[in-house]
Amino acid sequence: MRRLVILTIAVLTALPAVAQEEAATLRLACKADNPTLEAGPFAFSIDEKRGEASETVSGKNYGVMSYRDGFGLYDPAAGRSALVFRIDRVSGRFARIDKQIKVEGSCEKVERKF
């Protein structure tokens, strides 16, 4: 019985830390204005504190640079100067800027469903 109480207390004290970690992760669903320029939608999971982001559909990982009004996602292998995406926090607009043709679109915040 004593073990059960100790285990329950340990689990309950760990739950707020897990909830805080989930709250620090921003999830965005983005789609291009012109779908012929970009094949499919993007789903980003951005952890600003750790400076990491992942595109959950393709599994690609990016580094994160935070600006006052947005994010810059860059290829970690090429360094911070190799921006791939720019996302505006205020308007929810994104731009893919690593290719010759700039692709623009919009993003919406997504809540985790489980």
UniProtKB/TrEMBL annotation:
Keywords, sorted A to Z: Signal
Keyword Signal recorded: yes
Segment forming the signal sequence: 1-19
Protein name as it appears in the record: Elongation factor P
Protein species of origin: Magnetospirillum moscoviense
